[in-house]
Amino acid sequence: MVKELPWLQTKKETTSMTMRLYDTARQEIVDLEVGDHVQMYVCGITPYDSTHLGHAATYLTYDLIIRRLEDLGHTVELVRNVTDVDDSILPKARELGIDFLKLAESEMDRFSQDMEALNTRPASSEPRATESIAGMIELISALESGGHTYTIDGITYFDVSTFASFGKLSHLTNAEMVALAAERGGSPDDPRQRNALDFVLWQPSADDEPRWDSPFGPGRPGWHIECSAMSMDALGTTIDIHGGGGDLIFPHHECEIAQSECVTGELFSRYWVHAGLVAYQGTKMSKSLGNLVFVSDLRQKIDPRAIRLALMAHHYRSDFEWFDEEGPQAQSDLEWLVRAAGDADPVSHGPLIDEVRSALDDDLDAPRARAALLAAAQSIEDGAGPPHRGCLVAAASLCGIDLRE
Ligand SMILES: [Zn+2]
To answer: How far apart are CA 335 and CA 88, in angstroms?
Structure first.
């Protein structure tokens, strides 16, 4: 269950503090200028395989942002979708010989258990693509009326030449976008496309795939339109913060922007925050290589709080490699923190709390926050008095780690 942190509530009116985060679109660290209520959309999982460490690193990034925003007195509405129909879950279900929705159901359960074990704030809503088809059809129809689409062989494409700012998020050259599109599910060589970067909005389903009726023929949605529809349905035309792994910047998020802004004429997201990718001991972590580190396996070996602590050692924006020895090291760091905290009650203020807040405000410098926690444990061990213990409990709770469990 979510633990409230009443001893840490800072009312926004009483502080001039603001989080600063790197905005992918502006390509710089900026003040996060948001109202009392913050709307955040984070691209969720495709539920065809278990939660791995890369997912955990991504979702813990947004969890830390949410915790600090709440600490600053904001309320945060988090929408994290479930991509339960796309080009990766359908082949996997076919390979396993089970219904794709059954596969989605069981993997969503496992994901929820992992997220709960990691003490992440629950999402306000977790829309599923298969339950949001009407909104996608509505968006595609609006795009069609606006002259942004064309249909060939039953496939409806988005015509990127109708959106002048295509590329404004990723800042990639045309050639770089074409190369990445080919790598990440696009089809730049499809001779039916008017432009290499055009992407699928709607497509016919294979015989054993699910299909929905639509004005463009029976079929299923393309991946990108799913998130635009789910985001707008839950949060309206403009959201405050859009997040996801760095590999989603292009093409996924670039395409979301194009199709959304063509329909609404408004800015789709005010800030874009992306998390780095995790490799494993020198190799890209990937399903095909069979080297995924699953959260469910890892938490058999170490306390989920230690997983949080281990991931905090890496800055959210850097791609990093996970090494097996980080698990036991984090477990022993956690045990050290727990011993140092003892049975102290959290206190409302203190230098360590200020230090952790300031680290989080500084482009979510979790490594600095983690180092401050460990330094505090050291000074308690060296004889610092009881208030320091309460300060450590409060500062760790800001990072989602309850030392009193
Ligand atoms: Zn998405």
So the answer is: 40
Strands (E), 143-281: 149-152, 155-158, 199-203, 220-221, 239-245, 269-275, 278-280
**How many whole angstroms from 259 Cα to the centroid of ligand 1?**
13
CATH numbers and ranges of domains, the chain: 35-281 (3.40.50.620), 302-398 (1.20.120)
Q: Which sign, positive or negative, has the C-alpha torsion 394, 396, 397, 399?
A: positive
Tell me the residue ranges of DSSP E strands in 48-198: 75-80, 149-152, 155-158
For residue 272, the CA-to-ligand 1 centroid distance in Å is 12
Distance 11 CA to ligand 1 centre (A): 32
For helices 53-71 and 351-361, angle between their N-to-C axes, nearest 10 degrees = 120
- Per-residue confidence in pLDDT tens, the chain, 405 aa: 333 444 555 544 445 589 999 999 999 999 999 999 999 999 998 888 878 999 999 999 999 999 999 999 999 999 999 999 888 889 999 999 999 999 999 999 999 999 999 999 999 999 999 999 999 999 999 999 999 999 999 999 999 999 999 999 999 999 999 999 999 989 999 999 999 999 999 999 999 899 999 999 999 999 999 999 999 999 999 999 999 999 999 999 999 999 999 999 999 999 999 999 999 988 878 777 888 999 999 999 999 999 999 999 999 999 999 999 999 999 999 999 999 999 999 999 999 999 999 999 999 999 999 999 999 999 999 998 777 999 999 999 999 999 997
Ligand 1 midpoint to CA 251 (Å): 10
71 Cα to the center of ligand 1, angstroms:
27
The Cβ of residue 167 has, within 10 Å, a number of other Cβ atoms equal to 19
Tokens of 240: 């405050």
pTM (two decimals): 0.94
Q: Give the environment of ion ligand 1: residues with CB less than 5 A.
A: 43, 227
Number of H helices, E strands in the chain: 13, 13
Q: Which amino acid appears at position 114 of this protein?
A: D
CB-based burial label for 383 (10 Å; 0-12, 13-18, 19+): exposed
DSSP 3-state helix, strand, coil percentages of the chain (rounded to 5)?
45, 15, 40
Distance 204 CA to ligand 1 centre (A): 21
